[in-house]
Amino acid sequence: MNIFYAPPEQISESSLELRGCEASHASKTLRYKEGDQITAVDGHGGWYKGTITRIIKKSVWVEISSKERRKPVQPRIVTAIGLIKKKDRLEFAVEKAVELGAAEIAIFRCENSVKQNVRTGRLEKIALSAMKQSLQARLAKIKFFNSLLELLQYYSDSIILAAHQSGSTLKNLENFSEKKDFLLITGPEGDFSEHEMKLFQKRNVKHIALGKNRYRTETASVIFLNSFLLLFT
Hints:
The chain has 233 residues and is α/β, with parallel strands linked by helices. The chain has 6 helices and 11 strands.
């Protein structure tokens, strides 16, 4: 099943428009024609079905036949990933976080992170592709923070859990409510610094042990998010 992305500004009560790469993928790659049925999402929970009525260059117009509003995944989870040196591994972590249902993905720089730039645009494209691949209607936001302190301050209203071998397992923690927002933090390849561990202590961040093995950052972030989601199924 192929689904396409049309942001809210390209959707009216009765029709929607696919533009750019989405339109090219539908008309040129998949060879959709006028009269064909199509499914699209708006990235905010809207799920649309309709019929292609017109194809002009990089624009595909669709007459909407049905629409629904899909509820967000509960609880609302932000997965925070310490900056990874290799870009393909960071991209893997972002892709899997979206597939699992993270509402937001926060990339943050730690004291032990390797200094490098983050291609936010590239990560946003990966998140969009993962949303469509996993048949979701909500597009996870990608945010970047220059320090752990900046991350903790931004999500100060959330329940914050950090993956660390010194912690307890999720099974040993109290029952959580789906009505809460959660921030799940996975550190960088060089682990958290002593100063950053003290930041966790000051803000009462709970440490969560993911198992006996030592994982790469991208693997740990996937295990952490998936294990946490299983608590609510």
